[in-house]
Amino acid sequence: MAYRIFLTDDDRFLLDLYSVKFKNAGHTVTAFGSGEELLAALRNKDEPAPDAILLDVIMPGIGGFGALEAIRKEHLAPDAKVIVLSNQGQDSDIEKAKELSADGYIIKASAIPSEVLTETIRIISPENAQKP
What is the DSSP annotation of 46-111? Predict the structure, then answer.
């Protein structure tokens, strides 16, 4: 199954690296260099909603946690899985992501791009959805 993925990171090299990995696996990818760009796209009702949003934590302007907070508060892309993809692996960051209802947390330094792809697909696959 092909998914629509929104990648958000201020590191252009990593954005390109992850974009290629997801596109080569047959997914549609839209890359954003900031939280502001991501939120503008999510607020644009003409833009198709993503299946997953991958967010870096540390970015200039609106960082990943700020973007995640806005996504939840404004009910932007309510069906999308939001996954924090960060080098910040401290317990406090992971706990903050949980408090903001992130669907997953991947530490960049501990995962090669193919593992990021695999974990993202695992999180967003319908067969892994919570049963009521």
Answer: TSPPPSEEEE-S--SSS-HHHHHHHHHHTT-STTSEEEEEES---HHHHHHHHHTT-SEEEEGGG-
